[in-house]
Write a structure and sequence with these properties.
globular, Rossmann fold, single chain, alpha/beta, 8-stranded mixed β-sheet, 12 strands
């Protein structure tokens, strides 16, 4: 892709709010403040401030969705979708992505300093929900002077944030694109998250969450990531990528990474440890498990909502299977919403929302063109 299709160098910005005594009050109770959100923006906000698109990142993502940071070799996590002429065309739209509350890439989370103690919050950080994450995003959107988002879009946990925006702030969203996501976690999805959490907490270095400034629970967190990464792929994609290939014949029966897939998972686990906080892993996975927008929770019967939806799902995604996206559409149709549902035939599994760029671009471009006209932007 040519340079004319790239954003180029970008910088992360920081927005701080909820300074005492006006502290942020999570759903679980208590209060914290000040709160900082790391965020990036791409493109320009028009004079009417009607072309803003909020991107929600997935569980392990961050605010750096597109472009390059100075000195980086790799661009932001959704760079193929954000930029001039791309699905989220920065020649037309003002795209915003913020690191979620509870995160560890610039936003306030358990690794942040608690002003009351002068030490990291650790497990003194309050339990948070997806609704708390979105509430914090709303502060950012208000700060940017945007009264109504043209669109909220995201995959996986990002899709959960999109659905929560619909539930919490329906008058402030014109359209929504939840991708490969769910209204609530199934018992199996909660089970996978719990196994990951137990892996972290079983690491002796975790030390009840008080590991800052000491050895970190890197083995437990790496194993948790390995478990998670298996769920992101599909049986077919793993067969095509690895098969039963051995790394070296002389490694047999030594309990080393004999198979290519073993080496890959270990690499993924070790890489994750270098960029993610173990306590954030615990808090964010729990927030995902707590989400429940089923029934009338997404759009209560006493609320009049006029939001246009594009719901995307992938046929090989067994972490967030098709029926969960279909459940979203079923509720939307029952409530009389304008909802389009598309299943994309992919072999990549859950990771498809990061990889099926051509198909997603075609669908999202067409949808945004349509909703932009109806919004007058």
């Amino acid at each position: 892709m040519g340079k004319d299709k790239e954003i180029g160098i970008v910088k992360t910005e920081y927005f701080t709010f909820a300074n005492p005594p006006d502290e942020f009050k999570p759903e679980s109770g208590g209060a914290i403040g000040p709160v900082t959100l790391a965020y990036e923006t791409y493109g320009s906000l028009n004079s009417e401030k009607s072309n803003a698109i909020l991107v929600g990142h997935s569980f392990s993502g961050d605010a750096h969705a597109a472009g390059f940071h100075e000195g980086d070799k790799s661009p932001g996590w959704w760079n193929d979708m954000i930029g001039p002429g791309k699905a989220l065309d920065t020649n037309k739209y003002f795209v915003i992505c913020s690191n979620v509350l509870g995160g560890c890439k610039g936003s306030t989370g358990p690794s942040s300093i608690n002003p009351k103690t002068g030490a990291p919050y650790a497990l003194d950080f309050p339990t948070i929900t997806i609704a708390d994450m979105v509430k914090a995003q709303k502060y950012l959107i208000d700060y940017l002077g945007i009264k109504k988002l043209l669109c909220a879009v995201g995959g996986s946990m990002g899709g959960m944030q999109v659905l929560q925006w619909v539930s919490s702030y329906p008058k402030h969203v014109h359209s929504a694109i939840p991708i490969a996501t769910a209204l609530k976690h199934s018992p199996q999805q909660i089970a996978f998250d719990e196994v990951g959490r137990q892996a972290v907490m079983a690491d002796t270095a975790w030390n009840e969450g008080n590991y800052y400034g000491k050895a970190i629970p890197e083995r437990g967190l790496a194993v948790a990531r390995m478990i998670g990464h298996i769920t992101y792929m599909s049986d077919r994609s793993m067969e095509e990528k690895f098969g039963r290939k051995l790394k070296a014949k002389d490694q047999k029966f030594k309990f080393m990474a004999d198979f290519e897939v073993e080496g890959y998972l270990r690499y993924r686990g070790d890489s994750f440890v270098k960029r993610f906080d173990a306590n954030s892993y615990l808090y964010i996975t729990k927030a995902m498990d707590y989400l429940d927008l089923s029934g009338e929770r997404l759009i209560p019967k006493d609320k009049k909502v006029d939001i246009k939806f594009l719901v995307l799902a992938f046929k090989s995604d067994w972490l967030y299977p098709l029926y969960q996206s279909q459940d979203i559409v079923r509720i939307l149709k029952t409530r009389g919403q304008d909802a389009t549902y598309c299943e994309i035939n992919s072999t990549y599994g859950h990771d498809a929302f990061l990889l099926e760029i051509e198909e997603e671009t075609h669908l999202i471009k067409h949808f945004l063109s349509k909703v932009s006209k109806s919004y007058g932007s």
